[in-house]
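Handover notes (outgoing to incoming on-call)

Open items:
1. t-SNARE coiled-coil homology domain-containing protein: sequence verified, structure written out, both below. Nothing else pending on this one.
2. Nothing else urgent.
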Amino acid sequence: LSNIHYRSTRTALFDGIEEGGIRASAYSSHEIDEHENERAMDGLQDRVSILKRISGDINEEVEAHNRMLDRMGNDMDSSRGFLSGTVDKFKTVFETKSSRRMGTLVASFVALFMLVYYLTR
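t-SNARE coiled-coil homology domain-containing protein structure tokens:
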């Protein structure tokens, strides 16, 4: 009789703990799911803020490059005007001088260029 009483007491004692453990485990898994969701949302918010910062940096970089390209375009236009004037002056010089002097001048420039090229190489 004492053995049966011991078993029923033991069973009642452990059945309550196991049921409580199962309930606590289910509650705990629900809390864990919420905690994981909150952590995932925090991670997504961090990623969104990082992407927002990166897109802002890209925008600033694009605007800086556009300004630089505009300046380069303006510089190229002014250089084109300057070179056009220089070419016109050369045409005037070439037309008024004899072709023999012109050939000598061109050959001298080419020889000078080649000499400087081989010396710096």
